[in-house]
Amino acid sequence: MKGVLMKNKVLVVEDDPDIAALINVNLVELGLELTHAEEGNQALTLALEQDYDLLLLDIVLPGMSGLDICRKVRDKKPEQAILMLTAKNSETDRVLGLELGADDYLTKPFSVRELQARVRSLLRRVQVLKDVATKSVDNLSKRLSIGSLSIDSKTHQTHLAGQCLELTATEFELLLYLANHPSQVFTRSQLLESVWGYHHSGYEHTVNSHINRLRAKLEIDATQPKIVQTVWGVGYKFNPDGVRA
After folding, report:
1. Right CATH for 9-134 from 3.90.1150.10, 3.40.50.2300, 3.30.460.10, 1.20.1250.20
2. How far is CA 89 from CA 23, 32, 92, 102, 231, in A?
């Protein structure tokens, strides 16, 4: 399957045996190496001690919740890609999972094609980071500088006023996309399609939460953003004049 390498390793954390089997069958089709954990404490140990390209993480688990795992993993491994599985009626859990650092979420019940598309999308981002780390990509764009903000797509590093910002791969891609289109307003649907690589209604929380996370790292006062601004009734825009010199 295009875009996914045989070496990609995924930790599937799911206690429902039927759902776990469904995930296993359809991710094996992508040529992935899978590890399955049914219990939260076991999953956290594996996630912290082993290297996985992606965590596929259910929220409701015995031992430790997926939300707690997400928070602890993100604290220790800021670059870890995380896709959360949530129940259809658990909007609070979805928002909290994203605020804690999940890159994306998928609502149960989900289609096989949607599962594979989300996994492929996240793994493409992971591969870019791997290529950067091994310096195997030479055609990436160079540094984008706006005031005291510097975004380097070759090293995947972002600096603001001389300080290095710890951004997840998805936060980085979102900021880079907005900064490459200064003052242009994007709807949530447009950002989902351009940054996450899909367009499904009902997943706008993904964009909202990532915007909030970016603001917490970029803005002097995240409650009154100057750089990543809301255009009410439309979406978001990057304001270059809001970046301090």
Report:
1. 3.40.50.2300
2. 21, 30, 9, 18, 28
Beta-sheet strand order (sheet of 54-58): 33-37, 9-13, 54-58, 81-87, 104-108
For the chain, the domains span: 9-134, 143-242
One-letter amino acid identity for 38?
E
pLDDT bucket at 210, cuts 50 / 70 / 90: very high
Instruction: Check if the beta carbon of residue 238 is closer than 8 Å to that of residue 179.
Output: yes
Are 16 and 108 spatial neighbours (Cβ–Cβ below 8 Å)?
no
Q: What is the pLDDT of residue 205?
A: 79
CATH topology of domain 143-242: Arc Repressor Mutant, subunit A (1.10.10)
pLDDT at residue 134 in the model: 57
The pLDDT value recorded for residue 133 is 54
Angle at 225 between CA 183 and CA 185, to 5 degrees: 25
pLDDT in tens, 227-245: 999 999 999 999 999 998 7
- The answer to whether 81 and 101 have CB atoms below 8 angstroms apart is no
- Kindly give the pairing relationship between strand 33-37 and strand 9-13: parallel
pTM of the predicted structure, to 2 decimals: 0.75
- Residue 109: asked if its preceding bond is cis (omega within 30°), the reply is yes
Please choose, from the candidates 138, 148, 168, the residue with its C-alpha nearest in 3D space to the C-alpha of residue 156: 168
